[in-house]
Every structure is written in structure tokens, then in C-alpha cells.
Amino acid sequence: MTISASAFAGATASSLDGLLPGFSLFEGKAPPAAHDATPVTLAYRDTLGFDTEGALNTLGDFQIGNDAGEINKLTFIGYAVDGTSDNFGDLPGVIGDGVADGSVSASFLLGAGTYTLIVGGADYASQNDPLSLAYNYGLSTTLSVAAVPEPSTYAMLALGLVMLGFAARRRTVR
Questions:
Q1: Which of 108, 134, 131, 99 lies closest to 8 in space, CA to CA?
Q2: Pairing relation of β-strands 62-65 and 103-107?
Q3: pTM
Q4: How far apart are the first and last CA of the chain?
Q5: What is the pLDDT of residues 43-89, one digit of tens each?
Q6: Element (H or E) spanning 118, and its range?
Q7: Are 63 and 72 in contact (CB under 8 A)?
Q8: Are the beta carbons of 5 and 22 closer than 8 angstroms?
């Protein structure tokens, strides 16, 4: 599956204003109405051993819960970010696509299951600037991937139907 994220059409380096797209893909999904301030999420964050701004880890597994006490683990699969370290800093483990053009994409081999895609800006510093587009925009969504049968599955089905046909014909001949 190829996932792409883009800024508005016609974006230029000067008009992006910090809105360089980036996304992280996780297996699993958060419970309904999950947020950072629930008691179960705060308890999870306390187990990390370091301060965090929230539960989200864009480069690794994390857990988040809701007010009903449900908490789910989201398992990190991969990420993509637009730009270079000139745009989003020298964070360890972050490699951009090399061009700050307002668009990024990546391909992932996914099995059947439920996945969460978290989309936001790759320019970390712009998140704290109320005049920046990156401060005001970002979203997440849930992806469901259905299994697609392999061609060999169809071949086995056809062979089974032929065998049933022979068995039925043999019965009627007797």
C-alpha cells in the first residue's frame, strides 16, 4: 500500500509556512475518544521514565486510553516526512525525502488488519508558532486492510469444484 500526504495544491517552499507533511503508520487503533489526559494514558506515560508532551511516539510503539479506562497499544510500522534536517531538525532516526516540496509518500507491505495513520507536520518548531499553518492543522485516520486471496487460493477453489463435479457425476452414473 502506498500512502501519500500533501500540502494544498500549488504549495511552494515559501507558502508552505512550516506545513511540511509527515505521517506515521501503526498497527492497531486507539479506543474511542482517546486522549492524553485520561488516567490510564497518564499512568502509561509515567512508566516511560522520561517527560513527554503526550502519549504519541511518531517513531515507535505507544499506548493511549480513554475516560472509560480502555487503553490500546499502537505498534509502529513506519513513517515518511517531507524535507531534510534543515526543515525539521537533527532528530535521531528521522530521514526526510530530501525535498521540501509539500508532498511525501511511502509504501508498506500490510497484511489484513486495522491500522492507524497519524498525519501532521514534519516541522517540529512550527507547531508552537500560532501564525504557522502547521500549528493549526493535522489529523489522524484509521485504515482497514482486507486480505486479498492469492492466485493459488483461486486455483485450489477451482480444483475443489472440479473434484466435486466429478464426484457428483460419478454418483449419478451409478
A1: 134
A2: unpaired
A3: 0.70
A4: 53
A5: 999 999 888 888 888 888 999 999 999 999 999 999 888 877 776 66
A6: strand 113-121
A7: yes
A8: yes
